Amino acid sequence: MRRRPTLTRLLATAALALPIALPATPAVAAPPAPTRQLSDVIPAPVETRPDARGTFTLDPRTVIRTAPGSTDAWRVGHQLADTLRPATGYPLPVLPVHATPLPEIALLLGGADARVGQQGYQLDVTHRGVTIRANTAAGLFAGTQTLRQLLPATIEAAHRQRTTWTVPGGRIIDHPRFAYRGAMLDLARHFHTVDEITAYIDLLSQYKINYLHLHLTDDQGWRIQIDSWPKLTTVGGGPGTGVDGAGPGYLTKADYRAVVAHAAARHITVIPEIDMPGHTNAAQSTYAELNCDGVAPPPRTDMAVGYSSLCIEDELTYRFVEDVIREIAAITPGPFLHIGGDEAHATTDEDYRTFMQRVLPLVAKYGKRAFGWNEIMQVDPPTDVVAQYWGTGTTNADLAEAAARGNKVVMSPANKAYLDMKYDPTTRLGLSWAAYIEVRDAYDWNPAQRVTGVGEQAILGVEAPLWSETLRTLDDIEYMAFPRLPAIAELGWSTTTSHDWESFRTRLGAQAPRWRLQQVDFYPSPQVPWT
Ligand code: TNX
After folding, report:
1. Of 153, 254, 364, 509, most Cβ neighbours within 10 A?
2. How many structural domains comprise the chain?
């Protein structure tokens, strides 16, 4: 379902925020103990120390206080206020830190347990308030997402609810197992609009996902404006493109920047992917000169893969690739640029090596670090190149050798982490070439024990790709991502010692009321005790 446009939501919360004068102390009876516990969070926190005496109740006088002198912390404070105002109806002003008798939620930089690092946080709940401490704004933001889950599910309601807003008392110390926790969205097979992408980002950020990989080009469509090759979008992304010709559209550079900014505000970094030297029919059917024989192939709207290849021996190919990389790098603040490299079945091994050895330095030339699907490890790339493993097996010699040399790996095994795989044979959407993936299948694996020779040290993180051959709407995206995306998010964040299917499925079931209020069209898996 569509959520209310962000602007409407902003205006609504701004209106609520206007009267800064604080209401008088309400006469509140002793609050009932919350039914939620500190550990009822996805992804599971590293350490929780409950304190039954510490229950905090948000009330109309509660203020949000943020670290002095930090606009980043102040921004996180405002985002938290925007999240909590609609359902509570409280003003929740965002103020500088100050000694005060008022109940407060404090967002502080520094002073946290040393283990929290650059992405983690410490969250303390006493009867007086909540204090989140972190070393970075990203850590504070992660802490606020935990706080959100510690409040009653009705906190997600768009309108004022009459309830007691309790938070269970105690301390959480939390930090991620892996630095990289990603999700991928395929805009090529069916285009998805800025509103759909940003709605997905909002959901991802609740589960501490910190990278969004956008698959921007493929055989069926080219979805990103390139000024030096303008027909890529008007023709390659134009009417009739996409699977069944039903997914036209593209991001202008302004659209892309808006997505990047929306993600950055939620501490998510965008990774653009330009897939090559295969998966390039949209470009080659648009520009005849990108083909060795100078003849443009017809556009393709089927789901076949592995038939297209850029012309490896033609210098024009490298002018094209450099133009694209230069323009994409210029609008991408994040460190990574993904150059695909998968399923290049129409390129010989020798040509593939030639191509990658020319193109990898171009990524570096424009200041980016290259990502490639695991096939790219066949060319023994420099050790700063990241391999994204999408295979279904547990051995891959090229990948193991690369890991031994020092290349980092992002784990996306297609039979575990692919969100476009059907849950079971009856799933209306999705594909099944890799596996049927029920929630437990998505959860019960260990990224550092998946491929022989690719252990904890080699793993940068995990990513859940969502290919869109069968997906058209935001509802479709939500149905495939929920509830498996939170499973992958937990594999990326939580420790192996907390890995427990029974615990996970119970915590997952408790997310359902939140998703219903957010109008997330999730798959009600029979494996999960839904609340
Ligand atoms: C394989 S995984 C592909 C994609 C398809 C996907 C469908 C990978 C690197 N390539 O081109 O969309 O399967 O599940």
Report:
1. 153
2. 2
Residues 463 and 486 in one domain: yes
- Whether 475 maps to a domain, the answer reads yes
Distance between CA atoms of residues 5 and 59, nearest Å? 27
Using the atom order of ligand 1, give the atom closest to the CA of residue 189.
Answer: 12
Asked if residue 41 is part of any domain, the answer here is: yes
Please report whether residue 213 resides in a domain. yes
Q: Encoding tokens for residue 153?
A: 């599910």
Shortest-distance Cα residue to atom 7 of ligand 1: 467
Q: Assign 14 a pLDDT band (cuts: 50, 70, 90).
A: very low
* Best CA proximity match to 141, nearest among 92, 73, 67, 48: 73
371 lines ligand 1 (CB under 6 A): no
- Catalytic hit among 47, 322, 343, 401: 343
* Beta bridge partner(s), residue 465: 184
Of 146, 174, 202, the one marking the end of a domain is 174
Query: pLDDT for 112-164, tens place per residue?
Result: 999 999 999 999 999 999 999 999 999 999 999 999 999 999 999 999 999 99
**How far apart are the CA of 424 and the centre of ligand 1, in A?**
19
The residue range of the domain holding 297 is: 180-497
- Domain assignment present for 417: yes
Average pLDDT of span 207-215:
99
> Ligand 1: does its nearest atom lie under 6 Å from the Cβ of 303?
no
Question: Does residue 250's CB lie within 6 angstroms of at least one atom of ligand 1?
Answer: no
> Are 18 and 152 in the same domain?
yes
Question: Strand, coil or helix: what is 440?
Answer: helix
State pTM to two decimals. Answer: 0.94
Q: Compute the distance from residue 467 Cα to the ligand 1 centre, in Å.
A: 7
